[in-house]
Amino acid sequence: MSSLVWEALIAIYPFFSGMAAGAYITSTLPVLFKRDELKEISLLSLLISWATLIVSPVPLLLHLGSPWRAGNIFVFPQTSSPMALFGYLWITFLILTTISIIVYNWFYSAPWFKSLATVLAGIGIIVSILFSGYIGFIFGSNKAVELWYNPIIPISFILSAILSGLALVAVLYVIIWRLCRMQVNKSTLNTMGRIVWWILLLEVAFVGVEIFVRTYMQTAEWRTLHNILIEQLGFSYLGVQLILGGIIPLILLSFKRTTSSAGLMSLMSLLILIGIFAYRWNLIIGGQLLLEASPYIYTTITYTVPLTGHGSILWISAIFLLWAFLISLALAVFSNWRMGVKIYG
Amino acid sequence: MVKLEESSFLKLQEELPRLLNRRIERKSDKPRWAMVIDLTRCVGCYSCQVSCKMENGVPYEYFRTHVEIIERGTYPNVRRIFLPRLCNHCDNPSCVPVCPVGATYKREDGIVVVDYDRCIGCGYCVQACPYGARYPNPETGTVDKCDYCLHKLEDGEVPACVANCMGGARIFGDLNDPESPVSLILTSKSVATLKPETGNQPRVYYIGLEEAVRIGLGETLVVNPKIGGVMKI
Q1: For residue A184, what is the DSSP state?
Q2: Between these two residues, A83 and B8, which has the higher pLDDT value?
């Protein structure tokens, strides 16, 4: 076979679904965890989650060999397959997000607003965790691919999903508020920075423990995998995922000066987002670069994203443009996000 | 000069497929098909690979079965081993439970098949198979794999790779028939399966596998020398 079975389109799917789940979780923080400083961005987080959620299955559909049969996943779901969960989780998540947006946008003054928001957030946080965790399970439970076969991956996917959602909301919060000439609230940024730092610490710890244990065990597979990660994916693995998207934000976010500054906070969040994208890429593409040429021998292959055609940079750019359009559309239709803390306070 | 009677000629014509090991006799009501590959008889002629591609219309660059070349040792003490590979039709296949739409399943007769009308072509089963036996077929948009030439089997014929194996290295038969060639081999010879540690319980057995890949001190294995690779054991 000349190309990968799961190429760039599959690598961007968990990136989008993670951000959708994470943005929803961000919106639940004021209601479920009494983080009142984040009330200002509740509706914004929901709108970002909704737009990202709609885009998330697009790369999957484009990847399928027979996309016209995609409905089979609803008609003939096989319960033993984690992938079969996708359709039901996605639909449930989309309904929840839509209802939450309607409630936050138009019924914020109703007497039942707080109770309904709490119920929606309670169900939503479970669905979000399942939605990001099941993708990790697809990879973590696959014994045929050495880099994926790892029980830590589902947990790591959930953590990085929350992280990417928070980071995305932080970046867009600063950009949108600046564009609308609105005052960015420092306590909102500080709280987000603190939560991001703790989750980033956990995520870095998980990845660090995995690398340490695997390096210590020195299995033949890991020696080969290590060569792939260092030689073929050296820049995106060491440079982007670990240093740029992990260590640097972890160090800088520990200073209050960083989390108080809109510019620095959005820069750190952007670095985290790029680091998480690199994580998905290195895991999904990197895992497939180690090919079993025989039951006894490994070989390695190379992969370059084509400029045009199936799974190309052009297709991926179109998906990102669609995403930007949907976020703008959501912000235009449900415009009460501008009122922020004034209505939910 | 011996002159064949016309009736003898007709009889020979009728018997030819069986003599050439092309016909298969079904003795049990519920057969359980399996294959034994005798590595001591494989000459690396690729006729199994070619005949499979022709029989099943397998697209360019893809294979339902292929022959791996493993080079053992260093010059002048070198040996080549030919290792035919195909779907192992495992008893505990990891490709079956992962299919989100139940398009791949194991039949009662032991053959793991793909329902091409239901498969969405997501490639999850390709990733889950530890034997690399599946491929996404670009012509049909579905996943494809060896099905022991099911269409031939239903007509009472052995799979194309078995029928065309000039060294008689591929032996096919019913595990539930104690007199079938595979049952006789499994009860009389030492066989091994690929990657038993996966727990998939493969049902393609190899004669001479351990001997073929056993490596001595300082020896190396290289697979398909043009591709290259890293020794795993």
Answers
A1: P
A2: A83
Flag whether pLDDT at A339 surpasses 80: no
CA–CA–CA angle A117, A120, A123 (5° rounding): 145
CA distance readout (Å), A186 to A30, A191, A283: 16, 9, 35
Q: Judge: B227–A299 Cβ closer than 8 Å, yes or no.
A: yes
pLDDT at B232 (0 to 100) = 43
Residue pairs between chains A and B whose CB atoms are closer than 8 Å? 137
Other CB atoms within a 10 A radius of the CB of residue A106 amount to 11
Instruction: Residue B132: count other Cβ atoms within 10 Å of its Cβ.
Output: 17
> Does residue B168 belong to the interface with chain A, where contact is any CB pair within 8 Å?
no
Assess B52–A contact: CB distance below 8 Å, yes or no: no
Between chains, do B101 and A84 touch, taking CB under 8 Å as contact?
yes
Q: Are strands B33-38 and B204-207 parallel, antiparallel or unpaired?
A: parallel
Per-residue pLDDT tens over the stretch A211-258: 888 888 877 777 777 777 777 788 888 899 999 999 999 999 998 888
Report the distance separating Cα A219 and Cα A214, nearest Å: 8
Kindly report, residue by residue over B155-183, the tens digit of the pLDDT. Answer: 889 999 999 998 889 999 999 988 888 99
The tokens of A99 are what?
A: 């209802």
Tokens of A176: 């949108």
Alpha carbon distance B131, A43 (integer Å): 49
Convert the pLDDT of each residue in B76-134 to its tens digit: 877 788 889 999 999 999 999 999 999 999 999 999 999 999 999 999 999 999 998 99
CA angle A92, A97, A102 (to 5 degrees): 130
pLDDT over threshold 60, residue B16:
no
